[in-house]
Amino acid sequence: MSSPPVPPLPTVPLGALLARTELGLRQLTGPPADEVPVHSVHTSELSDPYPYLLGGELLLTAGVHAPEDTGTDAYYDGYVERIVAAGAAALGFGVAPVHDTVPSGLVAACERHRLALVEVPEETTFSAVGRTLWDLMTAVRHLELRRVTEAQQGLATAAARPDPVPAVLRQLAQRTGGFAVLLGPDGTEPQRAGTPPSGAAEAALADLVRVVRPATTRLFPTPASASDEVGGVQLSAYALGGSDGRALGLATGARAPGDHTIAGVAVVLLSLLQGEHRSTGDVRRSAALVRLLLGDDPGDAAGLLDAPGGWRVVHGTAQGTRPVPPLGTPLVDATGSLLRALVPADLDVVAHDGWTLGVSAPAGPGELGSASVQAGHALARARALRTPLVRHRADTPPPSLTALSDRPELRRTLRTWLSLHGSWDRTATALGVHRNTVRQRIAKCGVLISADLDDPDIRMELWFALRDLS
Q1: Which residues are within 8 A (CB) of 447 and not within 5 positions of it... i.e. 6 or more apart?
Q2: Is the pLDDT of residue 6 over 80?
Q3: Contact 119, 93 (CB under 8 A)
Q4: What strands lie across the sheet with 191-193, from one edge to the other?
Q5: Strand 332-335 to strand 338-344: parallel, antiparallel, or no bridges (unpaired)?
Q6: H-helix or E-strand containing 334?
Q7: Is 0.90 topped by the overall pTM?
Q8: I need a surface site. Which of 35, 150, 196, 386 has the fewest CB within 10 A?
Q9: What would the pLDDT profile of 12-26 be if each residue is shown by its tens digit?
Q10: What angle do CA 114, 116, 120 make, to 5 degrees?
Q11: Which helix (H) or strand (E) holds 418?
């Protein structure tokens, strides 16, 4: 079974949470705490929380669903099996007020399924555990952003030196703690920096770099990037643009979240430094990039980003590990499974296998911020509709309520939910139903009318349409 998707957030090892002595948490069984990454905290007293887990959570429960007289090994085994299937990272069990100790059947089940089990003492509230985790995640995110920012500044400074190409390679190797190699247009290796990996990993990196070099046929497009792993070494290869076959290879001992961003900056800089024939537009875009990297105001650099008809902003998410799709532009920021790109408006953006994309309307250099918001909303609609590509809603018809014409209970639920500003609890009270029933009905409405109900503009249009029907 493949691992379920997890939110694109920084992780915190369970061991960091256990180290906070004020919480008094104690691990009873499962893998070593430092090897268990936690993405979030979720509290549930359901006997089967599977439908409500995204993966990577520390699931907290006081065992209300399993009183002591239910204490059969079969019950706990099925309970833990479903938690593991949902991808939860660990289970936290509060010893009050239902149970005095963690049930032995639960401990045995967690041990069998290799799920980390943590005892939460009576004096520690679940909210305190959640708050502490978010504090730790914020600290991790801050450190990662600081590392990426410092790396960008270092790469930009290296690009301004008299020998910019080897200087950028050295910075890339130092900032990622790895090995960088630059492949020339004839397949030779003109530059390298950092400590080379093992022979097998280095040979695999050379093969991977050849994957992103232009092929002799156009029947199968050459990927812009590729990745692999050999003997625990993370390998990445990036095409440097153009048709001469220049490419960058990178080998690191681990793959930190910010490494993709750092490598992306290096790829853009090396592409600009290695390009022998650049158009006036390329020169202006290079100047804009350097200004931004060196800290100039974005408004001052925006005027250099000229393109016929303006630009479209593209936001995307990948299903698993996917190479960056060929969008016909070098202005791409790919971080893990997330992507942002600037594409000339006269180029058509099409769907790509394994990616979900949202595309903005054409925008000038001074309107790119608004276009990015449009692309984000379009991506949210694409994910809600489970379609590979959605363009800004100005290019698509408004949502229609035709599909709800014979579903009065759904129309009433949607109208009440909108009138109460999307409050699940208040809607449930107003309708006299359970809040989960409201959630299920609203989700059904979104599917039937093919609309993203998280979009405030769509909510407003639906509200007026429903008001006119009443």
Answers
A1: none
A2: no
A3: yes
A4: 191-193, 178-183, 247-252, 233-239, 225-230
A5: antiparallel
A6: strand 332-335
A7: no
A8: 386
A9: 999 999 999 999 999
A10: 150
A11: helix 408-419
- Identify the helix (H) or strand (E) that includes residue 315: strand 311-318
pLDDT band at residue 278 using 50, 70 and 90 as cut-offs: very low
What backbone phi and psi angles, to 5 degrees, belong to 443? -60, -40
Closest CA to 326 of 235, 230, 215: 215
Confidence (pLDDT) at 355: 87
Task: Indicate the helix (H) or strand (E) that contains 107.
Answer: helix 104-112
Which tens digits make up the pLDDT trace of 171-223? 998 888 889 888 776 666 678 888 888 888 888 888 888 777 655 444 455 67
Smallest Cα–Cα separation from 43: which of 107, 5, 91, 97? 91
Q: By the 8 A CB rule, do 314 and 359 touch?
A: yes
Q: DSSP letters of 48-105?
A: --GGG--SSEEEEE-STTS-GGG--HHHHHHHHHHHHHTT--EEEEE-SSS-SS--HH
- Pairwise CA distance, residues 272 & 302, whole Å: 18
For 193, how many CA atoms within 13 A lie in the half-sphere containing its CB? 16
Residue type (1 letter), 25: L
CB 344, CB 292: distance < 8 Å:
no
Cα 173 to chain centroid, rounded: 24
Using DSSP, how many helices (H) and how many strands (E) does the chain show? 14, 17
pLDDT tens digits along 351-396: 888 889 999 888 877 777 788 888 888 888 788 777 888 888 665 5
Give, rounded to a whole angstrom, the gap between the first and last alpha carbons of the chain.
Answer: 48
Split at pLDDT 50, 70, 90, the class of 281 is low
Question: What b-and-e string marks burial along 331-360, b requiring 16 or more CB atoms within 10 Å of the CB?
Answer: bbebbebebbbbbbbeeebeebeebbbbbb
Phi, psi of 61 (to 5 degrees): -150, 150
CA 465, 469, 470 angle in degrees (round to 5)? 120
In this prediction, residues 396-423 reach a mean pLDDT of 82
The H or E element spanning position 167 is helix 164-176
CA distance 50 to 55: 9
Residue 31 clears pLDDT 90, i.e. is over it: yes
Q: What pLDDT, on a 0 to 100 scale, did the predictor assign at position 198?
A: 81
- CA quadruple 117, 123, 127, 132: dihedral sign: negative
